[in-house]
Amino acid sequence: MLSLTILQGAVLLTSTLVVVALILNIWRMLRGPDITDRILALDTLYINSIALIILLGLYNGSALYFEGALLIAMLGFVSTAALCKYLLRGDIIE
Amino acid sequence: MNLLWIPLLPLLGTLVPLLSYRFGRTATAALTALLPAISLILVVQAIPAVFAGEALTWQASWIPQIGLNLAFHLDGLALLFSLLILGIGLLVILYARYYLSDNDHMGRFYSYLILFMTAMLGVVLSNNLLQLWFFWELTSISSFLLISFWSHKTDARKGARMALTITGAGGLALLGALILIGQTVGSYDLRTVLASGDVLRESAVYPVIIVLFLLGAFTKSAQFPFHFWLPHAMAAPTPVSAYLHSATMVKAGVFLLARFYPVLADTDLWFVIVSMVGLATLLLGAYTALFKHDLKGLLAYSTISHLGLITLLFGLDTELAAIAAVFHIINHAVFKASLFMAAGIIDHESGSRDMRQLNGLWKYMPYTATLAMVAAASMAGVPLLNGFLSKEMLFAETLHQATLGSLSWLIPLLATIGGALAVAYSLRFIHDVFFNGEPINLPRTPHEPPRYMRVPVEILVVLCLLVGIVPDFAVGDLLNAAASAVLHKPLPDFSLAVWHGFNGPLLMSLLAVAGGATLYYNRRHLFAFQGQFADFDAKIEFEKGIQWTTEKAAVIHRWLDNASLQRYVFLLIIFSLFVTAWPLLQLENAQGSRPQLPVNGIVLVAAGLLIIGTLATVIFSHLRLLALIMISIVGLIVAIAFAYFSAPDLALTQLSVEVATIILFLLALYFLPQKTPLRDSSPRRIVRDLSIASLVGAVIGTLCYAMLTRPLHSISEFFIANSKTGGGGTNVVNVILVDFRGFDTLGEITVLAIAGLGIYKLLAGMRLYVPAADSEGRPWAKDKNPMMLALISQSLLPLALLVSAYIFLRGHNMPGGGFIAGLITAIALIQQYIAHGVAWMKIRLNFPYHWLIAAGLLLATFSGLGSWLFDQPFLTTWFDYFSLPWIGKFELASAMVFDLGVYFTVIGATLLILANLGQLTTSERPLPGGK
């Protein structure tokens, strides 16, 4: 029983910290100042979301959320890469 | 014999002239005539049975749900009309062979003509009301094609348009009448309807039925006040006029009167309307015909007048009048067809139809003149010709009716005047054209036509004489059969003798002849009197009306469809706002009875981030790339929310769609200006749009809140209960997609495929402006494909494919499925395009994505069709459990094949769109030829 409470407590604490991180990501995204800062902020937002989803799974004791995290990990990279390619070349497929 | 062949052969025959016109004119005519001739033989074969009182029927189920069967029947009336349509049709084919010039496209002409013939046969043979209407409309359309055959002429186009508008509008009214009849009787079967006269006459909607029905019949048969389209339809080639305005098109209206006579007639309403309209048309047509200088114009108004006569007969309250009407249908068809053909010959051989120029043609074409004079005499109602007999019957019946109470004596008087006018215009036709001095300024010297051009006229004139001299022998049985079908009961006694002794009708005939001769002799005064009236041209008035309507429609169209996307969205949103807000106004309290879920800090923060993301998108909307980054926040948070509220399938879908959307936006942004030019919207517009947006947000938010806080019985219980047992999967979402609602999914992937192909087509051959520098004016980087990106992307590909295979395979039981897996695969491949470029991909992945789409759709469809092999309905799922060593127990389901189809279609469509949009700037871009 006790261990469960500890896990839950840990998950709640971590979640709070991740949420704070999310707020900071948004802050960077709004502030900029450069477009690269904002893209980086979006990418970090993706990574923090992965953490949030995994934590959600831990909290609920369900493995159903893991694929969501997997997809964000994989596809978040694609959108960040596409945005960066756009900054570099404008034409992302050439 | 199969009744279906009678209309089917001509229908097939519409193709014959199109295929055969290369082989010369005679061959075309002969081949075209072949199938209708066989049809005629089939009809003739049926004559003994029909005369014996039998009605042949044939029926097949078509759309039984709406009472529409493919049903034909051949009774006396249908037999009479089929003989006229096919018989005169064949003569017209022969005649047109000589009438059409080398410049006319003979194949097209014959094809239209046979199509029209099919439509008419369909009308008279139909045993189902809806089917009858279908063929009725086909006559309108095919006659439009025929009238506008010389489409280079304004007259022809306008005349055809007028005919189509009037008869089309009438057809709409008729549809209303037929549906009302069908609903009142409870069946669209004609035999059933014909047996339910009392039900119809006593029903409350009877007056509505009558008015709509008569609108249909009167517009088609050119009855007053809808008669004006017929003279303008004379712009058609003369064979068309000979066919349409003698035996067929205009007779469709009186056919309808005859067909429904047993059920709709027999009330005062019917008799008053029908007889009065008929009488007015009879007089107006005959009077106007007298003043027409154009030969075909005279015949057109004479046709109107004779149709009025037939209508009048149907409106007189006696059984004999109905018989006389049927008799006159035959007679008029015969003599009017021959007269139109004669007029065509005169026009063809002399180059004019104007009776002020045509004089004294007797000397040039005595043989044709004799034929035309006999036919014209029949039109006038001269004894020993067929026109005389039916006119006598009319006169006799007008003496025995009481339609107008104590004023009923007016009807015989007016009928006699009509007769006198007919005599006068027939005299004018004969005297002005064939005698009356010498021709004036004719373009050609008139001469006799080719031998076989005259044959159809000869046959018809012989018929005039035959019916006129020995009526009982010539048409007695046919008339009996047709009239008993019209009356739907045993016929009263009547005699078709030429001589009935000195009696009232004969006296009226004599008066008519004398009066007509006097009128014609004094025509100068009459013309002078008529000359005082201003010319009324129906075409001009009609065109005015049409143009007024078009203008008003254009105004409305311009207002609604002004090519402004903002306007469309505005209208759409305003409309949906009204639709959704209205029920909310009726709702007392938005909050329902369900308890609310607990709120925690994480949810609050996520909601806050969602709002910030939305606001930032609006604020940065001028800077497009920035707006795109901001809206990504919204997509991500929504996906997490889906996961949090236990919808993992939705979360996965949302995530993959999100990425595909970003790539699509980036591809498109490249071709757009980097910034919206900062010409801000006017403050008024901002206030307006802001208010609308807030209002919509408030309404939709309230709606969601109201819905979510109420306990609703949804259909999800059923799916949850049956998912495993019925569909063999524990993931309800996926089982719904591939099984319960598999047909919807099939439709959706088809739409996706069409959208993909449509976008491909739009992209083909497109050339766009390519910016040389970014929004800050910096030149683009030199390195096309950075090595780091290329390496990481390449190593990501197998991983991504593995994930997509995993997501696909487990989809039936766990979150996932073909759609998400397809998107993941497509995105992983697009990533290779981004990292390595098109040329690199072309070497490694060189096949058209169209095939992938096609394969996907076929796979999905065949997996559905497969269930037919086991006598199951479309898309029934089969599944079973197997076990293999090492792998253990696993499930195989036919739904998996369907899901594989979805998977392929999604990959194909996504790649077709994204890759081709990306290739626009490369040498691999899609070309207009579809290469």
Give the strand tally of chain A: 0
Order of secondary-structure elements of chain A: HHH
Distance between the termini of chain B: 54 Å
The CATH architecture of chain A: Orthogonal Bundle
Number of helices of chain B: 38
Q: What's this entry about, in short?
A:
The complex is a heterodimer of chains A (94) and B (931). Chain A is mainly alpha-helical and 94 residues long.
Describe this structure in words.
- The complex is a heterodimer of chains A (94) and B (931).
- Chain A is an all-alpha fold and 94 residues long.
- Chain A has helices at 2-31, 35-60, 66-89.
- Chain A has a single domain, classed as Helix Hairpins, CATH 1.10.287.
- Chain A is built from three helices and no strands.
- With 931 residues, chain B is mainly α.
- In chain B, helix 33 packs antiparallel against helix 37.
- The mean pLDDT of chain B is 88.
- At the A-B interface, helix 1, helix 2 and helix 3 of A face helix 27, helix 28, helix 29, helix 34 and helix 35 of B.
Relevant terms:
heterodimer, A: 94 residues, mainly alpha, Helix Hairpins, B: 931 residues, 38 helices, 70% helix
Topology:
The complex is a heterodimer of chains A (94) and B (931).
Chain A: H1 2-31, H2 35-60, H3 66-89
Helix pairs in contact in A: 1-2, 2-3
Chain B: H1 5-13, H2 15-20, H3 25-51, E1 56-63, E2 68-74, H4 76-99, H5 106-125, H6 129-147, H7 154-185, H8 190-194, H9 197-202, H10 206-220, H11 229-232, H12 238-247, H13 249-259, H14 261-264, H15 268-290, H16 295-315, H17 319-350, H18 366-380, H19 386-399, H20 410-434, H21 451-469, H22 471-487, H23 504-521, H24 523-530, H25 538-560, H26 565-586, H27 601-619, H28 624-644, H29 648-669, H30 683-708, H31 716-727, H32 732-740, H33 742-763, H34 787-810, H35 818-836, H36 838-844, H37 849-869, E3 879-884, E4 888-893, H38 894-918
Antiparallel strand pairs in B: 1-2, 3-4
Helix pairs in contact in B: 1-3, 1-5, 3-4, 3-5, 4-5, 4-12, 4-17, 4-21, 4-22, 5-6, 6-7, 7-10, 10-13, 12-17, 13-16, 15-16, 15-20, 16-17, 16-20, 17-18, 17-19, 17-21, 17-22, 18-20, 18-21, 19-20, 19-21, 19-23, 20-23, 21-22, 26-30, 27-28, 28-29, 29-35, 29-38, 31-32, 32-33, 33-37, 33-38, 34-35, ...
